[in-house]
Write the structure tokens for this entry.
Amino acid sequence: MKTECSNADNRGSVLSLFFEPKTVAIVGSFREGFFGGYVAIKSLMEAGFTGTVYPVNRNYTEVLGWKSYPSLSDIDGSVDLVIVIINSKGVFDVVEEACRKGIRAAVVVSDGFAERDRSGAVLQNELVALAKERGIRIVGPNTAGVVSSWEGFNPCPYDAGYYRLKQGSVAICSQSGMTNPQAFPYPASRLGISRICDLGNKCDVDECDLLDYLENDARTTVVSIYLEGVADGKRFLETAERVARKKPLLVLKSGRTAEGARASASHTGSMAVNDMTFDAACRQAGILRVDEFADLFDIPKIFSMQPSIKGNRFGMVSYTGGMGVMAIDRGASYGIVPASLSGKTSAFLDSFFPGLGTNPVDIGPMAVSIKNFREVFPQIEIAVATDPEVDCILNVLWCDIRGESSRAYLEGFSRIREVCDKPVVSWMYGPNVEICSRIAAQVEELGFPCFISSERAMKAIGMAWTYELFRRKLVA
Amino acid sequence: MKTECSNADNRGSVLSLFFEPKTVAIVGSFREGFFGGYVAIKSLMEAGFTGTVYPVNRNYTEVLGWKSYPSLSDIDGSVDLVIVIINSKGVFDVVEEACRKGIRAAVVVSDGFAERDRSGAVLQNELVALAKERGIRIVGPNTAGVVSSWEGFNPCPYDAGYYRLKQGSVAICSQSGMTNPQAFPYPASRLGISRICDLGNKCDVDECDLLDYLENDARTTVVSIYLEGVADGKRFLETAERVARKKPLLVLKSGRTAEGARASASHTGSMAVNDMTFDAACRQAGILRVDEFADLFDIPKIFSMQPSIKGNRFGMVSYTGGMGVMAIDRGASYGIVPASLSGKTSAFLDSFFPGLGTNPVDIGPMAVSIKNFREVFPQIEIAVATDPEVDCILNVLWCDIRGESSRAYLEGFSRIREVCDKPVVSWMYGPNVEICSRIAAQVEELGFPCFISSERAMKAIGMAWTYELFRRKLVA
């Protein structure tokens, strides 16, 4: 059954039913509230889903304008996907009915299965047996579900307060609801999303099935995945390596320690693998193993928004000398070294202000001294970005409360966009977080990713370089 | 001269003139703008400074209501501190005049000294010789200056858009302007501050002088310091160890790598020490060495807002099981282990919801199932916080957009405040960053620090435990 998803052509993949359904049945309670079937339909509508929705509940005739059906069997047309949000005890019957109806994909949001207790584990085993026997694929149980931004498909069962996700090419996968819209502030992160999937207890569809699908998903160019354990270590590494050859794959795996692994087992019932073995295997397979939750969401930006990195020499344009030293330290841990600017660039920069022509380029003293910073900054940024001795650029830029420096930065970013084919990452800092966020959003609109610290921006460069080295090894 | 500041009684310390001046002369241009003497006086006034300000500039008769003087000598009364914000070439003469006037403390904001070029280094050497000969103490040059929140003393020469800092007991020191109000969003961080000091090029007053002062500063209970290098490694470690015995001292030292050290030398002209030696010495001396810029600002909260930690067993109340596993992994790196709840607590929790009585306590499934979460949550929080098997508490709490869960949390925090003598740290997460920030601010108003991630909250616990172990070694 699992091999169904390993075909190179995604059109045949059953998993496309989860991410690109045209017809969706939602079995649940439709009381208004912050959680449940009502919210799932509301989310779909607000997200701009253009497919057909079938609410299923015998107590309703209509939900948010959609005709409601007493049961799945009562639906006339075919159904690509059923989303089940009812008490765990009733799930088996609904999924069995779905099988009878010819439905091939089910998201079981309901909890109270293997993660809860022994009787829940029994319910889950019955579900697994049903899936094996009847060929229906199940995401979950105990999941916050799936999202596809391009299709306007966001059946989030919790009210996140926002419904449309920024369309992009990053897939976020997890074994936890923590990466779904109700838990993570996607709008504030400005991350462009292709798919989101919480595998939950992964009783059937697991990380390998998902990676098989994402490998060939044209919408997805970068994959982030959070795992507490892997069902089949060998298969995971084979699958992940195949994905990593095509697109960057970031993996955050918890359960590193004995205590963590035990907790993981009790949380989702998944098995842990020896962490050091896993770590070594990841390096071998070109998997970018990360160690912080935030890594899943901001590191992908350098891959989805920027060209690949061709070398390990970073140029830095910084409003503050202190951050330059820290960035150099941080870079060293990824094999990233400060570039020596070419004589031409150096002389050009020195012509604006004494001492400016040294990397890291400390623009702070100049900025308070000259009157035409807005004209000068773009020239400096272009000079550093186009220097052949520089492979990537880290900007650390102060956003004053009047927005004067910011105007210079935006002008600079607009102009380097036309001349620079290297990764450019930035940290916009300052005394007012709203102003910094606004400027960072504008910089990202121009195509250049911003990070919440200089360290995180450098980490993105380091990950890009790690991936580039892996790709070179493949070609060699 | 330097020994002046090593007296145990701070009243005699010359450095108190920098942080608690009653009369301040500001030599600079007073044009309105985003930087300079005008802004420094505006900042002082808005911050509520109650001392006397003497603007010094022969082109003005009055600045922001304060009579302006042509020169320092023209001021009638005595002056505790002079702040110099003029072109580097004129600084020597002003400081010399300050000496003649009997002023014993000068902050030289001006840049263009050793950090710039050779001629700047000559100017700096002249300044150092003057200080040595005449006994005036100098902070800087190339500094954003000093701040004392309790005294309303904030002469920030850049317009930060805010002027009053939240009064607290954390001192933030640096060799960079990055920790001063114009660069760091103190209001958003909600950090309670005692002093801020940018040592700049530290031509005279250095980190040791500053630590000598802060050691005996009653306003300060925690010290964070960013250093690129130390002038005298032996003296620094002796001083730092003495401080660490009295209050937690967090040190972020850059220039760890050879490249970083070189950049540091060119940035502020300070010498670097061998990093591994420094690291070992820090551990020995009880100094909490940190590795990220953000550490300087949020880790201190656990020390300034919470009781000391008595053991290494953490209890966790989490809306999400996934974060529990990650927290356990993270904790292990600091020697923090998950507590086994006592039978009594466990049974009590299980009575609310099946499976709840296991640490990490996963409240998510219960929260969507029960109707009286607001009544139940505080009881759960109290049960975990008062369990004798638990030494500290990590909360990972989802903030829904309707604020319903938040009300339960605030009720819980209000109540544990009265019964819990253990550190409690929290991460408030959710789909809306403004809502999360607002709830976090309310939680901090109740006295419990909030962090921007589960990892950072656990790092704070780890640092608290590291410090506790150091203190125990001292007593033993």
Q: What stands out?
A: The longest strand of chain A covers residues 167-174. Chain A touches chain B through 75 residues (CB under 8 Å).
